[in-house]
Amino acid sequence: METPKKHRNRIVVLGVIFLCYTMFQIWFFSQEVGEREFYSRLESQISNPLLLNSGLVEARKAEVRVVLWFEQGKPDRRFKQDLTQTGWAWMESNSAGIAGLPYSLAGYRTIVTEEEPEIFAWYQDLEQEVREVGGIAYLDERIPEGIDIAHYALKQNILPRQFSLSERTISVTGWQESLFSQVLAGDDRVNIQIISQTHGGKGRTALALPVLLEEF
Length: 216
What we know:
- By secondary structure, this protein is an alpha+beta fold.
- It folds into 2 domains: 4-44 and 143-209, no CATH class; 61-142.
- Helices cover 31% and strands 32% of the residues.
- It contains 5 helices and 10 strands; from the N terminus they run ααβαββαβαββββββ.
- An 8-stranded antiparallel beta sheet has the order 2-3-1-4-10-9-6-5, covered by helices on one side.
- A hairpin with a 2-residue loop joins strand 7 and strand 8.
- The longest helix is centred in the N-terminal third of the chain and has 30 residues, at 4-33.
């Protein structure tokens, strides 16, 4: 009879094997096509990296969160007044604009597959506007379904920079050439993160640009 400890150890070993397989697939792809061809593919188009239209999930709805973060305090531009209110719930921190404190504006809503391309295009414009005044625009999309991270990373031309593995949860953080927003994660410059968890036939996945800001 298998003890709980042996069962847990087996899960960890299987997780490590899967992570190594994921890393190998991504590395092999980048080597196979060659660095020059790989980057030319990246530069040829700006694809929608969001989950519902990825072709890899069955989900038709997703939760989307957008966070505008300003480390140096509230900007002069009033983003809250300019942002769409339909379907969104917006919340501010440091709304009074107290000097020396960061300012953030966070919005939440549920979208369906057909709305996703418009949401991504809107985020791209918003990200540029926020960056121009010294802020960072974060976006994450969450679905109640696991995903094949290796397949997703290859399909989206993600160059992996960091991996993490805990029991039943895998995260890949990397670089996608067509995306603009970026942050430093340690010594690595990254702009996309995919994290997925599966357990007992159920799962959940979050896709974040440039990284996941809120708890998974």
